[in-house]
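Hello Y.,

Per our agreement to keep a running log of every chain we model this quarter, I'm adding this entry. I've kept the format consistent with earlier entries: sequence first, then predicted structure.
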Amino acid sequence: MGQSSWAERIPAVKSKADLAYESLRSAIAQGDLKAGERINMDELARSFGVSKIPIREAVKRLESDGLLVSRVHAGVTVAGIDVTEMRGVFLAREAIEALVAELAAQRIDDRQLAELEDVQERMRAALERDVTGEMAELNSRFHQLLAEAAGYRVLGDLTEQLLMTIRRYRITAPLGERNWRSVVDEHDTLVAALRRRDPEAASGAARAHISSQAAHEAEQGGAEGEGAGTKGAGPQEG
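Predicted structure for the entry above:
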């Protein structure tokens, strides 16, 4: 048995830096740490019960992700969101989601398809219960599952990064019920194409979905579209 074979079966053990990174990243995504808020590394180290070394490592990773900013005299703060950059985020999502959907239509298995359909049902049920607060997390799960089905980790990483940006942006301007219903309807079209294993239709449905949500934002003037917000805002997505 080769080394690579048994090494792959060893469970991954998360380091203190990994745990700090994930905790801080989640806090930023959920809006617990808001744009412009200063990060006190001494206080974080005490809270986590660790030295400042893993906290510094986590902060450096978050700076690389564009979620934290380090400035002389200002220290480390949570990065803001620039409205003018959000158009670029949607353009990137449109291209990446179209590719992801095309690949997923060729590679998705029955289990993955069932998971996507389950998330869809949960989104629809949340709408019917008027619990739109659950929608952002379910929507993220839908797009993460789609990226996993595409089969390339880099596409999953890019999808996650773009979703994170939009979720942070949405904290100050969440989607309304009308837009969430559009999201679910657009997901339905995409899932139908995946069920037929039709790459061209899946790619077109994904591109139309992101384009539609970007148009909602423009139509609402940043009030409740997919990606609405203001510069310096903290984050949801569609």
